[in-house]
Design brief:
With 403 residues, the protein is of the alpha+beta class. It contains seven helices and 23 strands. Strand 3 and strand 4 form a beta hairpin. Helix 5 crosses helix 6.
């Protein structure tokens, strides 16, 4: 069966037209794409700009911002290192200024350079950088690119270093330091001469450092060639032995006892000292016990005192008399005696005998601890001038020999 064209139904209906909602969706998508593209371009531009700004900031980080002034001088736009060198150049000239420090007999001439002269320029540069950082990147770019000056002014000052000053004072103190020296008794001439005590001294390190540092700071602020003198205070220390109120000197060759007060000979006494068999010991001793109306104890009951009592109480028959002063030499005493005929001779068993009025006088004048120096001495006639005691009654009764 054949089919003709008449038999075929042709579709002559028009194409379908999109709905309005679909058109809006398509337009929206196009807008989003364009927005994203635009934003991306903006972000790229901003990123490139920020990177360029950051690179520019880093490249100029060491430059001071426009308008910065140091010590009244405009330094904006200059490298900090260049400005720092300019600020530290005057140090060499100021460092030659001198301060003289005197501590007792010692003097030290110190230059400001030796006192550690330095400027606070580095701290000032650090402060200028910190102030620039505080502005942020945008602020710094605004000032630098547009040459807008900041209103920042800084002052650089010179200073000395306290530790350097202290070290200089330690060195000066070493030249002043002196330990105290005790007074001493010199018998090189055979008689007594007091060598005076010497007080110790040292520098007051804290006070000296403070004074020298303060003067150094003044001079650093206003340098002049001659910075004047600073007196460094000293500390003193007393010796243990400042002098001798009394000294007793016994010269056995003369059988005399010399009494010195404050180094001056005030009286000479005739005494008896040890016989050759029982010599009075030589050396430096001291009084360790003063005995009023002493009891006599037999010092050698199996030897020369074998025929004598074990002890004799105080009284007229006591061999020690009315006063005795024990020395720190075993068995040796300065004591009274009624055997005045023995005075001026070597007659005792080692003790030093004195006439009773003399020992009573001396007993009241000296204290425990009084030095007693016993020398061989020289023949009579070599003694210095001084009042000499009377020997006493040569006819007085003779008591027991106690020493």
């Amino acid at each position: 069966m054949s089919t003709t064209t008449d038999d075929i139904e042709q579709d002559t209906s028009p194409e379908p037209v999109p709905a309005p909602a679909a058109e809006e969706a398509i337009a929206g998508r196009r807008w989003v794409r364009r927005s994203v593209l635009g934003a991306s371009i903006v972000l790229v531009i901003l990123g490139v700009t920020a990177a360029a700004a950051s690179a520019y900031d880093r490249a100029h980080r060491d430059e001071l911002l426009p308008g910065v002034r140091v010590n009244g001088r405009p330094v904006g736009g200059q490298e900090q290192a260049v400005v720092l060198r300019q600020l530290e150049t005057p140090l060499s000239d100021a460092g030659r200024s001198m301060v003289r420090v005197t501590a007792g007999p010692a003097t030290a001439a110190l230059s400001l350079q030796q006192m550690g002269l330095h400027s606070d320029a580095r701290a000032v540069m650090a402060a200028a950088r910190a102030d620039a950082d505080h502005l942020g990147l945008a602020g710094r770019m605004w000032h630098r690119v547009l040459h807008k000056p900041v209103q920042e002014s800084y002052t650089v000052r010179l200073h000395v270093d306290r530790n350097a000053v202290r070290d200089a004072m330690i060195g000066l103190g070493a030249r002043v330091q002196r330990a105290p020296v005790d007074a001493k008794i010199d018998t090189s001439t055979g008689f007594v001469r007091i060598v005076p005590a010497v007080a110790g001294r040292s520098i007051d390190l804290t006070a000296a450092t403070n004074k020298a540092f303060a003067r150094g700071e003044e001079l650093a602020a206003h340098p002049v060639p001659n910075g004047g003198t600073v007196d460094a205070p000293l500390l003193t220390s007393k010796p243990d032995v400042e002098g001798f109120a009394d000294v007793l000197l016994v010269r056995t060759g003369e059988n005399r006892l010399y009494h010195y007060e404050n180094g001056n000979l005030v009286k000479t006494y005739m005494v008896a000292t040890g016989q050759p068999k029982y010599p009075t010991p030589k050396g430096n001793f001291k009084i360790v016990l003063k005995r009023f109306r002493p009891v006599w104890i037999n010092p050698d009951p199996t030897g020369w005192g074998a025929s004598l009592p074990k002890s004799i109480p105080a009284g007229p028959g006591n061999p020690l008399g009315t006063r005795a002063m024990n020395l720190n030499a075993p068995g040796i005493r300065i004591h009274g005696t009624t055997n005045v005929k023995s005075l001026g001779t070597s007659a005792s068993h080692g003790c030093i005998r004195m006439a009773m009025p003399d020992v009573e006088e001396l007993f009241d004048l000296v204290d425990n601890g009084t030095p007693v120096i016993i020398l061989a001495g020289a023949p009579a006639g070599a003694a210095p001038a001084a009042p000499t005691t009377a020997i006493g009654d040569p006819n007085a009764p003779v008591d027991l020999e106690a020493g």
